[in-house]
Design goal:
Blueprint: H1 10-55, H2 63-77, H3 82-91, H4 104-107, H5 115-121, H6 124-132, H7 138-149, H8 170-184, H9 196-206, H10 213-221, H11 223-234, H12 241-246
Helix pairs in contact: 2-3, 2-8, 2-10, 2-11, 3-7, 6-7, 7-8
The structure holds fe (ii) ion (FE2) (2 copies).
Residues 95-96, 124, 150-151 line the site of one fe (ii) ion (FE2).
Length: 248
């Protein structure tokens, strides 16, 4: 049997090259989609872990969701790029993921912690860092930075590093302010929520000593949006960050 010769004219070569290019493009698209899906799965798994850590501390678990909006809105008010602010939207939710490693008898203790218990509790930033830091993607690197530095204070009185001023990464300075306001305005087992007015006054008082004044100013610039987002989250909504930013 004779095999017919392959068509080798210039038009046929062009068609083969075009088919080859189409295959490569399809493979690259599939690879990008698979990478994106795996990134999303990993992000969602860690967000679930963060939610599990939060449930040990807050029965409703929505503190971390509000933290995402508040932190990202502060970042946008500081003119940070939208991409970075959106990354902080997710990363900030993992700020207390290290609490997974804190025993319940300390984490849930209703009264004051002893100095030894406080020492154990204050390990949660480093535990969170250890959980996230080996990751190679920017979201988890930012989450690790936030986990490690959200209890540092502008005047150097925080932990675990006793860092001060600009030496504290901006992400940690932002999340510290968001955490302070949100913790004050939520009900705790040992006290009811403070009013927004009282919490805002307390935030102003703590600015400069505990917090970066520039970050506190950005909080006040975004205040209406932050409070509107918080109320929507408390009502069970999950608006997009872009919508919340454009809303007021
Ligand atoms: Fe914390
Ligand atoms: Fe928190």
């Amino acid at each position: 049997m004779t095999i017919p010769p392959l068509p080798v004219g210039p038009a046929s070569i062009d068609r083969q090259i075009e088919r080859f290019a189409t295959d490569i493009r399809r493979l690259m698209t599939e690879r990008d989609q698979a990478l994106e899906a795996s990134r999303r799965t990993r992000r969602d798994a860690l967000l679930r872990l963060a939610a599990a850590a939060e449930l040990k501390d807050d029965d409703t678990g929505v503190h971390i969701v509000r933290m995402g909006y508040t932190s990202a809105l502060i970042a946008l008010a500081l003119d940070c790029p939208f991409d970075w602010s959106e990354r902080l939207f997710y990363a900030s939710r993992m700020h207390d993921i290290g609490k997974l490693g804190i025993p319940d008898n300390i984490l849930k203790k209703p009264g004051q912690l002893t100095p030894e218990e406080r020492e154990v509790m204050n390990r949660h930033p480093e535990l969170g860092w250890a959980l996230l830091a080996d990751a190679d993607n920017p979201l988890f690197q930012l989450a690790a930075e936030v986990a490690l530095t959200h209890h540092e204070r502008w005047d150097g009185s925080g932990y675990p590093g006793g860092m001060a001023g600009q030496a504290i990464p901006l992400s940690g300075r932002i999340v510290a302010v968001a955490d302070f306001f949100d913790a004050l305005t939520m009900d705790r087992v040992y006290r009811p929520a403070f009013s927004d007015e009282r919490a805002l006054a307390m935030l102003s008082d703590a600015a400069e000593s505990h917090f970066d004044l520039r970050v506190v100013t950005a909080f006040f610039i975004a205040k209406e949006r932050i409070i509107a987002a918080r109320d929507r989250v408390n009502d069970g909504e999950s608006p997009s960050l872009a919508d919340v930013w454009k809303s007021v």
